[in-house]
Task: structure prediction
Amino acid sequence: MKKSLICIVMAVLMLASFCGVYADAEEIVILFTNDVHCGYEDNLTYSAVAELKDFYETLTPNVLLVDNGDAVQGDVIGAVSQGEYIIDFMNAAGYDYATIGNHEFDYGMEQLEKLIDMAEFKYVCANISYTGNKVNKLKAVKPYVIHEFEDVKVAFVGAATPLSIATSTPSFFQENGEYVYDFGYGMDGEILYGLIQDAVDEARLEGADYVILLSHLGMKEDTEPYRSIDVIENTTGIDAVLDGHSHSVIPSMMVPNEDGDLIPLSSTGTKLQYVGLLTITDDGLISTTIINGTLPRSVGFDLVEASITADYEEMIHEVVATSNVNLWITDEDGIRMVRSRETNLGDLVADAYRHATNADIAFANGGGIRVNLAEGDLTFEDIKACHPFGNQLYAVKATGQQVLDALEWTSRNTKAEYKTKDGATGENGGFLQVAGLRYTIDTSIESPAIADEKGIFFGFIEDAPRRVVDVEVEKDGKWAPIDPNAEYLVASHNYLLAEGGDGTTFFMEDPVVLDPGIMDYQVVVNYITSLKGELSAYKEPQGRITIK
Result:
């Protein structure tokens, strides 16, 4: 037997061992991913996904590959190409359908329209609508699509989290200051459920034998009533849910629908930790599982990948700064802290904004600081992966009361403990890492902050106690209580201060001192460079945020 043939046989055996089944020729196989966040070469790799699809196509002609959102953003390769390289990868891997995650919007509506046009697969989402009088950039996104196999029709209905506006950039969803894109809001979830139910019913009327929900809703408790399980419990006619958004690892969970029928739900984590596998047997049995391990790579995909990466490889590996300490957003177990606790990297990033503007106070939202930075040389890739959103330096004049309100709003989810046996808890992407400021969060006090149905700040419960206390401002090395009536120069980036990111709307009407300037990652590079890599002061968090 020739060596090449031996390699092929071994690859097939390896794939089969991880898949656990040899699909029958009559079975329908749906492979799925979610929350890849530009991790094209992480864990299983897009190349392995492509090879996995090819493998199943040798067993049955009924094979599809789908994605449940948040594919194009999250690392340098997405940032430098505004998602285009990731769409190229997904095309090469053979994706057929996808739904839209909240981070698909991070490059703006015009760029998302371009990405959708570039995609050789179809996007579906049942709960996005447009009410503007200009051009609907998402007109190509349909509520559902029906895929016809030889004698079976499978419908794919899409769902994006109604919190997409608050967790991306709110201004992207507006025209002339008014919101024109809607995601099926409603504090009780009924509008979302109704939109999804309408799509399911229409697909059934069109002849769909099975309906699969491609969901970017997730499972986190603080997103109720918009979770995937909420949708299942309040609808009928969905046969399975493939989920994303919360980065959950779920091989198969059976959830009762409105009629009491048990519906399988599955999710694959993030960064290609797993690939999902849904099968429909010829007698209609639906099951889900997830696959991991060491899978063969696709030679065809690798050729495409080499061509793409050659365009930017030299740039991303250029050393742009050095650090003599480890800078982190997670604990030693890899549990994320930056969205609920002060971290040393959070301190450094906030200091970078303050240093660049000579501001009194600076903010960095925890959700905008994405990865740890290891001691040693730091490349463009390292810094851009840490700060991937392409925001710009920005500064405004704000009152002390606005600062107090912002701290209260962004601390509303914080808990006394930041983790449980299941991972991070009490998180909020808007949680503020600070410079020139220190404060305490008393978690025994229930947050008085109220969000509207879009996840945007609405108000505070009147006369309710606040959990953020002992707020002090630093000037010339001296600390003093913040004055609610005083004016302070506040620095951050345009997402937080000008665009109401994470629902933090307090500063949007403030006098602008610095219009959008240099890119956020360059602010960090410049600051580290100014310190000549001597970052010993950041070896540990500096005691700016106290949790009690």
About this structure: The radius of gyration is 24 Å. The chain has two domains: 3-309, 317-547.
